[in-house]
Write a structure and sequence with these properties.
Helix content: over 70%
Number of helices: 16
Distance between the termini: 24 Å
Structural class: mainly alpha
Largest sheet: 2 strands, antiparallel
Strand content: under 5%
Length: 371
């Protein structure tokens, strides 16, 4: 028996989004090379970043558009594909910048952009500091991808009904603002001293919602409905589905950041520990250790998290310490609760097939990852 096609592969969604991205990259390459052939590596890096990924946000957007009356085979469908491309380009911008802020070594199994440009700096015996060169290049790459995202959106909008385009634009702009603020809250949380249990978890949830949950699931679902001209009641229903599902998605990501298989995640095991990510998982582990009077575990966690020099052995020790508190089981229960709430809301919406089934499949794909 063959596997059913993934949601992003049905009705040529991936092909439509990929085609829009390919057109954009080709035009960008022509413009950049016309300025100077030396700029070509920038376009190569953008192309490499947008060639990967699951197209999760584009898929949530597209199938929500279908669920709210969008008709395949129309000029509006092509516009929704371009909006999906705009989402992917914004995601690329966020990842370029995120990897610099987190000082990450890899992205999707390849060297992160700032590392790749630093390596090129050394290979060509260029002058100056190679790490600064790489960071500067990656920051500019993020800016370039932001410009590309805005441009793709602007060219999609005229094909859409004016009211729908206006409402959708408001969603798109709010999403981008929230992600930017969420990034700052993430950086701030890692700089703050460990506080009380409630404060640590509250900040972790603020980051989770602003930086990931709304951006990865809620806003794309609302965006698709808005593109179809859905009313405010329908948009509110989308939010009731999207926020708990987005939270479950990021809680799963937090577990994978500590316990995941690098072959699947594309990042070294324990990167979140080295970066000192203040996640709900970590907050729960500390809460349970303090409640048990386990000062040794509290000391192990607070002294080890955020240590860039952690060896693989120490990473494994920290992961085992977190596991021993029982916090991963608590996070699994949080995932189950939020996922169940999202599925209940999906059923309450009465969305038509095949959109309903595809959104359910996407929901499972977002939260059922185990490695």
């Amino acid at each position: 028996m063959t596997d059913a096609p993934a949601p992003v592969d049905l009705v040529d969604l991936r092909a439509g989004v990929d085609a829009a991205l390919a057109r954009h990259v080709a035009r960008l390459r022509a413009e950049v090379v016309a300025l100077s052939p030396d700029g070509a590596p920038l376009v190569d890096a953008v192309e490499s970043m947008v060639s990967g990924g699951k197209r999760l946000r584009a898929a949530f957007c597209y199938w929500s558009w279908r669920a709210h009356g969008g008709t395949p085979g129309t000029p509006q469908e092509a516009a929704v594909h371009r909006v999906g491309a705009a989402l992917e380009l914004f995601q690329a911008a966020a990842l370029f910048h995120d990897d610099v802020m987190d000082d990450s070594d890899t992205r999707r199994g390849r060297p992160a952009a700032h590392r790749a440009f630093a390596t090129d700096h050394a290979a060509r015996s260029l002058l100056g500091d190679g790490e600064r060169f790489g960071a500067a290049a990656a920051i500019l790459l993020g800016d370039l991808a932001l410009v590309a995202s805005e441009r793709e959106w602007a060219e999609a909008a005229p094909t859409l009904p004016r009211d729908a385009a206006t409402t959708a634009r408001e969603v798109f702009d709010l999403m981008r603002t929230e992600v930017t603020v969420g990034q700052y809250l993430d950086v701030l949380a890692q700089a703050l001293p460990w506080g009380d249990d409630d404060g640590d978890e509250r900040r972790a949830l603020d980051v989770l919602r602003a930086k990931s949950a709304r951006y990865s699931v809620e806003h794309p679902i609302v965006l698709g409905a808005a593109l179809a001209g859905a009313d405010e009641a329908a948009l509110a229903g989308c939010r009731k589905v999207g926020l708990p599902l987005g939270e479950a998605f990021q809680l799963r990501d937090d577990l994978l950041g500590v316990f995941g298989d690098p072959a699947t995640t594309g990042k070294p095991a324990g990167d979140d520990l080295r970066e000192g990510k203040r996640t709900v998982l970590v907050a729960r582990a500390l809460r349970r250790a303090r409640a048990a009077g386990d000062d040794a575990t509290v000391q192990t966690l607070t002294s080890g998290l955020g240590d860039r020099g952690l060896t693989d052995d120490r990473v494994r020790t920290l992961a085992s310490t977190i596991a021993a508190t029982g916090a991963p089981d608590e996070v699994e229960r949080l995932i189950e609760e939020r996922t169940a709430r999202a599925f209940t809301e999906i059923e309450a919406r009465g969305w038509p097939e095949p959109a309903r089934g595809q959104l359910v499949a996407l929901a499972h794909a977002a939260v059922d990852r185990r490695a």
